[in-house]
């Protein structure tokens, strides 16, 4: 806590601290089993120690524990004797009056030193053993109270504790032996200076193996965003989150103050109460120390001693005296390397900086810049350029600031700090018009702009021009994800180019605009690409020309694959080779390989894609390599080589994560989900789809994850969940940029959900929308599943009266679409036969021969769910034909189909198989009978939740569950929480009891449980 400062807004959402809460909950569980627990929680002021204790206390109370809180009270330099223990014992007496009285019986006179309410003290004996006796009686008191119930004693603000309290706590930690007791204490880590009286105690307790120590770190950027969202009850602007995160350094209390301040529009970003709190100790320093603090505040997060000396212009003795005063007051700290100084907290520095007068601030920055220019060795070489740019900019010296800022932007870009690069380039644009002409004529040449052609004849020596600067900024904005800013820069550049007759540079900016329009969901980007292509007509080959062609080919591959796209990709490769644009060449070759696979040249196309992947890895072209890990496995899956795709996708996860390609990683997760679904690994497919949703930055890869989850839910018969995920996918993907790989998949699920809910006319309407236009060459991998879903819906509804009207037209429409759709791989040839079989079934005259062909086709593939479905249909046709041999064969087919359906949790298929067996009066032992009502299903438990509950009942921890089921501990924790909610219980023990009472699992050897 921060003493008298009032927190004005607290997030109702508890953020982060998962590992710390797990540690505390584990301690609670151990204590409940009779093993006393001792914990220390440290962290700087405001980091969230009290909030963590409150959350844990609430959870402990829900679990049936009694919680007693006590806090140390500061008075001067010492705290009140035994204050936290007295408060905690009073709380126990309120909660358990009879039990506490019984535990204290016979020892009231001694214990009144801690709890006067127990009676009057006669003063007692005062000898060397008196305190030890009191400590022993207190320990035994707590053990007795906690003999048959779990008790949590939490003591806060140990840094203010008096000596007696510290000694009693040490005694308890050393001697507690029995009882269901948790004793925890919190302290401010930043207040424990070298001479602090708590420091020796912490060192002593660290040597005790029975004491666990938790150090609370500051929040990361994601956690700060969630905290701000809780405070504001709305999703905060990412820029605001970045600003508050940078200012607060992740300190939870400061985040609260800054969030409120930002919401209320404070001028400086600090509330008066917080500023006063932070400045009170600074203003108590000697004047020379205050002056040095002001200099350090303006110098950066850390200021080197030599640089500080050059700026302060004090004698060495005076400077050291001033620094010693600031360090002793805990305002400044020496760096770990011992070569400089920094403020204890960045907000203290900001508060001191706020007190500087405008002229004072610019004068200090000028002094820093002049000192650094005079002696560049005053700061580390890697920091010099960036810091010099900052000093000159804040000194308001335009002639010096513009070149310094531009040099710094190059350094930022070289470190992949694109957001920082954009900020610096925008500063340069701000300074441009006011900079002297002679300054602009001496600027550095153009930096990284991809294939943009710089102004001037010799890019290596021609000074930067304003249009070049805009090109740098547009690229930086796009790469940093700040697309709105990049789009504004691009629009302004095109406006400036409007009257200049510069088609090459204009085409480049139009390509940038196309990408940004797509990313911002403002359109599909084709109009902008078309403009770029028009501008390039008749111009000689160039990198820009190759880039325009490659981008157009990639667009066509995703939107309108076919001969034109293939031709564009071939020309892009040719132009890239002519001008030596290696990355464009590899990128275009990857697109070309995918188009070749889609056009029917699978082996040649896949070989090209493998070679591009290998070359990109060898040459370090990470963007192309990341894209290869998305597209190559996707094309392998498209031709039925799914098992070959999975290890590539797993390799791609490692690669994209290593290089921070979050969207590519999300696409890899989505593609892995599709592949695992095809291979009959549905639980893993669902986890992979969740991975796409978790890591994706852009909407489209997240939409891909939602589509996969909808697919799994549909296969398992969870129609509400399938509909929910479908709606989520549509929201992610939008309508601004339709692609067959999205529209056909969405329509397939829409038809499946509508058919499952008996809405045949809605399914037909969705099919009609999806087949405008037809299934073009190159989109067959998405088209065949769509046709199959529609044909199956018609066949399943053939006996319904509502299906009669319009059935002939629909079936003919499906047959016509099937005739036009390519079957260039065994998997799609098998789908073609399946679609035709379903259409025949819809007309009521399918046969065993028809379905035998389909089963034979799928037996050659690695798609167990599809095989199980067509085996079910073949069995149905055999049973219709009659005959004992046919019945025996049908029984075996149904047994195989049911085994797959049961393994996958594909309830609609399992129920259909069981119902068919029942109608055919097949012997009970020949196929699985329809299962009786399953208690787990009645409770709403999914297949994965059933697996988790089995392990919970066996006493596994979340980490052990995660290891056994190949999921993350966090995912296991979410499953456990969902299970507790569905069972209506508050703890794992109760959940296990419910599972055993309902006989959800049969006990096997030892503690191993087997699903019943």
Structure, described:
By secondary structure, this protein is mainly alpha-helical. 65% of the residues lie in helices and 5% in strands. It is built from 50 helices and 12 strands. β3 (74-75) and β4 (78-79) form a beta hairpin. The relative contact order is 0.03. Mean pLDDT is 85; it is low at 1-9, 74-79 and 1003-1012.
What is the overall shape? flat
Q: Please report the distance between the alpha carbons of the first and last residues.
A: 52 Å
Largest sheet: 5 strands, parallel
- Approximately how much helix is present in the residues? 55-70%
Number of strands: 12
Q: Kindly provide the radius of gyration, computed on alpha-carbon positions and rounded to a whole number of angstroms.
A: 35 Å
Q: Which structural class matches the secondary elements?
A: mainly alpha
| Strand content bin | 5-15%
* Secondary structure tally, helices: 50
Q: How are strands sequenced across the largest beta sheet?
A: 2-5-6-1-7
Mean pLDDT: 85
List segments where confidence is low: pLDDT < 50 over at least 5 consecutive residues.
Answer: 1-9, 74-79, 1003-1012
Task: Write a brief structural summary.
The chain has 1012 residues and is mainly alpha-helical.
Top keywords for this entry?
1012 residues; mainly alpha; five-stranded parallel beta sheet; three-stranded antiparallel beta sheet; 12 strands; disordered C terminus
């Amino acid at each position: 806590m921060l003493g008298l400062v009032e927190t004005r807004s607290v997030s109702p959402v508890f953020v982060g601290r998962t590992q710390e809460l797990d540690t505390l909950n584990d301690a609670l569980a151990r204590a409940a089993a009779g093993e006393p627990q001792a914990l220390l929680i440290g962290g700087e002021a405001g980091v969230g120690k009290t909030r963590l204790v409150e959350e844990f206390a609430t959870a402990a109370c829900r679990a049936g524990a009694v919680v007693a809180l006590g806090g140390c009270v500061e008075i001067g330099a010492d705290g009140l004797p035994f204050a936290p223990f007295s408060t905690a014992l009073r709380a126990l007496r309120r909660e358990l009056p009879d039990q506490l009285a019984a535990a204290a019986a016979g020892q009231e006179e001694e214990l009144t030193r801690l709890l006067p309410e127990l009676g009057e003290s006669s003063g007692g004996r005062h000898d060397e053993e008196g305190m030890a006796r009191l400590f022993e009686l207190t320990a035994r008191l707590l053990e007795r109270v906690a003999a048959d119930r779990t008790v949590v004693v939490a003591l806060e603000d140990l840094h203010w504790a008096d000596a007696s309290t510290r000694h009693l706590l040490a005694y308890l930690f050393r001697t507690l032996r029995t009882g269901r007791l948790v004793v925890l204490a919190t302290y401010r880590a930043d207040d424990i200076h070298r001479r602090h009286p708590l420091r020796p105690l912490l060192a002593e307790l660290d040597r005790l193996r029975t004491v666990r120590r938790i150090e609370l770190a500051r929040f990361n950027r994601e956690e700060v965003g969630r905290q701000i969202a809780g405070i504001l009850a709305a999703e905060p602007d990412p820029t605001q989150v970045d600003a508050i995160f940078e200012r607060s350094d992740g300190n939870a209390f400061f985040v609260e103050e800054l969030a409120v301040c930002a919401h209320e529009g404070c001028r400086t970003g600090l509330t008066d109460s917080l500023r006063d709190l932070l400045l009170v100790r600074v203003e108590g320093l000697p004047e020379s120390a205050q002056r040095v603090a002001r200099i350090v505040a303006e110098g950066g997060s850390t200021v080197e001693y030599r640089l500080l000396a050059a700026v302060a212009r004090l004698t060495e003795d005076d400077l050291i005296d001033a620094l010693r005063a600031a360090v002793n007051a805990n305002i400044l700290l020496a760096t770990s390397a011992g070569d400089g100084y920094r403020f204890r907290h960045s907000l203290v520095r900001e508060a001191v900086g706020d007190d500087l007068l405008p002229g004072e601030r610019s004068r200090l920055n000028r002094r820093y810049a002049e000192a650094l220019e005079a002696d560049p060795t005053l700061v580390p070489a890697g920091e010099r350029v960036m810091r010099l740019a900052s000093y000159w900019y804040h000194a308001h010296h335009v002639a010096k600031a513009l070149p310094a800022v531009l040099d710094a932007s190059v350094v930022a870009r070289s470190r992949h700090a694109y957001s920082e690069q954009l900020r610096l380039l925008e500063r340069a644009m701000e300074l441009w018009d006011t900079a002297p002409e002679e300054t602009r004529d001496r600027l550095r040449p153009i930096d990284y702009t991809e294939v943009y052609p710089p102004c001037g004849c010799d890019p290596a020596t021609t000074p930067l021009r304003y249009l070049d600067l805009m090109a740098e900024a547009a690229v930086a904005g796009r790469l940093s994800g700040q697309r709105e800013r990049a789009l504004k820069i691009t629009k302004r550049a095109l406006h400036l180019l409007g009257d200049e007759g510069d088609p090459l540079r204009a085409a480049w900016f139009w390509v940038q605009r196309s990408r940004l329009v797509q990313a911002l969901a403002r359109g599909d980007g084709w109009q902008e690409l078309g403009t770029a292509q028009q501008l390039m007509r008749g111009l000689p080959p160039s990198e820009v020309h190759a880039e325009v062609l490659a981008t157009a080919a990639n667009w066509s591959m995703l939107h309108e694959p076919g001969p034109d796209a293939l031709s564009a990709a071939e020309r892009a490769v040719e132009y890239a080779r002519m001008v030596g644009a290696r990355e464009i060449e590899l990128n275009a070759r990857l697109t070309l390989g995918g188009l070749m696979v889609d056009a029917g040249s699978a082996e040649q196309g896949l070989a090209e894609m493998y070679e591009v992947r290998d070359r990109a890895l060898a040459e370090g072209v990470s963007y192309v390599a990341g894209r290869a890990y998305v597209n190559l496995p996707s094309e392998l899956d498209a031709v039925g080589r799914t098992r070959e795709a999975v290890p590539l996708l797993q390799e791609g996860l490692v690669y994209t994560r290593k290089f921070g390609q979050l969207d590519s990683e999300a696409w890899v997760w989505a593609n892995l989900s599709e592949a695992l679904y095809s291979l009959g690994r549905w639980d893993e497919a669902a986890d992979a789809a969740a991975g796409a949703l978790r890591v994706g930055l852009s909407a489209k890869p997240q939409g891909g994850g939602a589509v996969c989850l909808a697919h799994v839910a549909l296969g398992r018969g969870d129609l509400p969940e399938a509909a929910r995920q479908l709606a989520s996918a549509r929201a992610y993907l939008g309508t601004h940029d339709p692609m067959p790989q999205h529209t056909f998949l969405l329509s397939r699920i829409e038809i499946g959900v509508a058919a499952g809910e008996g809405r045949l006319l809605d399914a037909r309407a969705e099919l009609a929308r999806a087949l405008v236009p037809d299934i073009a060459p190159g989109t067959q991998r998405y088209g065949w599943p769509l046709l199959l879903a529609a044909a199956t819906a018609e066949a399943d509804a053939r006996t319904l009266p509502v299906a009669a009207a319009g059935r002939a037209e629909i079936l003919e429409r499906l047959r016509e679409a099937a005739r036009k759709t390519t079957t260039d791989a065994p998997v799609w040839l098998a789908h073609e036969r399946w679609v035709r079989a379903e259409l025949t079934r819809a007309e009521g005259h399918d046969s065993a021969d028809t379905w035998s062909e389909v089963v034979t086709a799928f037996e050659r593939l690695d798609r167990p769910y599809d095989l199980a479905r067509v085996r079910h249909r073949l069995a149905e046709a055999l049973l219709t034909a009659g005959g004992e041999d046919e019945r025996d064969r049908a029984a075996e087919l149904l047994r195989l189909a049911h085994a797959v359906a049961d393994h996958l949790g594909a309830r609609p298929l399992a129920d259909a198989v069981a119902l068919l067996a029942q109608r055919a009066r097949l012997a009970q032992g020949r196929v699985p009978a329809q299962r009786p009502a399953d208690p787990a299903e009645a409770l709403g438990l999914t297949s994965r939740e059933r697996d988790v509950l089995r392990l919970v009942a066996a006493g596994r921890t979340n980490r052990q569950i995660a290891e056994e089921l190949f999921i993350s501990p966090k995912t296991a924790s979410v499953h456990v929480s969902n299970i507790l909610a569905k069972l209506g219980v508050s703890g794992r023990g109760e959940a296990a009891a419910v599972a055993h009472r309902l006989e959800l699992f049969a006990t096997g050897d030892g503690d191993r449980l087997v699903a019943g």
